[in-house]
Write a structure and sequence with these properties.
This protein is α/β, with parallel strands linked by helices. The chain has helices at about 10-20, 20-30, 30-35, 90-105, 120-140, 155-165, 190-200, 200-205, 215-225, and strands at about 40, 45-55, 75-80, 80-90, 175-180, 210, 250-255, 260-265, 270-275, 285-290, 295-305, 315-320. The strands form 3 sheets. Strands 1, 4, 9, 10 and 11 form a 5-stranded mixed sheet that branches. The protein has a 5-stranded mixed sheet with strand order 5-12-8-6-7, with helices on one face. Strands 2-3 form a two-stranded antiparallel sheet. Strand 6, helix 9 and strand 7 (about 250-255) form a beta-alpha-beta unit.
Length: about 325
Amino acid sequence: MAGKLQFTLDDFQKAAHQFRKELLMLPIIGINDTLQFMTPRPGIRYKESVGDMSGAAQFAPYKPSRSDDFYLNLNFRTLETFFGNVHAKFEPNSAISTLLGTIAAQAKGDGQLTAPTAKHVLSLIAKSSSENLNNAIWKGKRNPNGNTSMDLFDGFDTITEKEITEGNISLEKGNYLKLTEAVTSENAYDLAKQILYSLDPRLRAQDCYLFCSQDFADKYNDAYQLTHSGYVYNSQFDQVAVEGSNNRLHIIPLFNKADSKFIHVCPKSNMLVGYDQMSDTESVMVKEYEPFILSYIATMFFGVQFESIDKRRFKAIELVVE
């Protein structure tokens, strides 16, 4: 059946033009398993200032002569998105065969079989790029001369390390904690409580995410059972929030946090993921440079940043790496 489906270069070029917005959005949709716990910021090209403001104005007992100087504290950070591109060579018939196999497998349940279109082929390529973006969310390290998604932008872990080196994240500032022992199935529950109790009261009062590896979550669950062995265990095995947090500190294990040296505690609003999607600067096109081989070429902006690293909205926990 794959041999009966023939798309010309013109078919692919028309699909790239007609469905440009959808194709550019697919890498973003593809990282939704991570992005759902963060705050997307569309429409950002290159740099934008983000952050919070605070001041010292306050009400006091009434006095007609009261007059106080007001000092506005502006704590700005820079959310930078970097311009990147993908150039993926593909052989149309192979891509069509792959899609037919996928569609045929899905069709067994309802008996429906939909022939793939040129758009489907391009969508397959566009969405595949999201896996590498997902891997770089935490561990990416900007290298303008690099050739992978890991080189496109600084991930959250990389930003954290830089801020620690510069002294902006520290024990003195209350936004940093370094554990003194490696996480095990015996102590993970106690370490999670230590993290909870170390949070600034204003951070602890919010709904926050504890971003961690699946390994930490597994060890917390094991330690929870050991700690509560004297109780009838009627609830689900997976604990979705740190006990004692009033269900406010949600445990979020992410596959791209594997082997990370940090746990992060933040509200969703503090984890920013920037991209464009609103201008004509980003593009999708298909070219033919070799016989029987086409090239999917796309450009887009992407980057991440903490909106604030103030202890009221952020805490980095450094793990003991064995």
